[in-house]
Design goal:
The chain is mainly β. It has one domain: Ubiquitin-like (UB roll), CATH 3.10.20. The chain has one helix and five strands, in the order ββαβββ. Strand 1 and strand 2 form a beta hairpin. The longest helix has 7 residues.
Amino acid sequence: MEISVNGKPVKIEIAMNLAQFIQSRGFKPQTVVIEYNGEIVKAQTWEGIVLKPHDRLEIVTFVGGG
């Protein structure tokens, strides 16, 4: 299936929830904010969100520095 991540198409071969997807892409859950189909979703809900074809994700990563 294909979803959109930050405006780019991404193919997913197996069904997975949002938490699994974030982990599979190497993101640290405590450093990202996810917008799922136009709605910001809390990390506590990621396991209950099963990705479907044509879903849209926007992933914003926090970066520290100084």
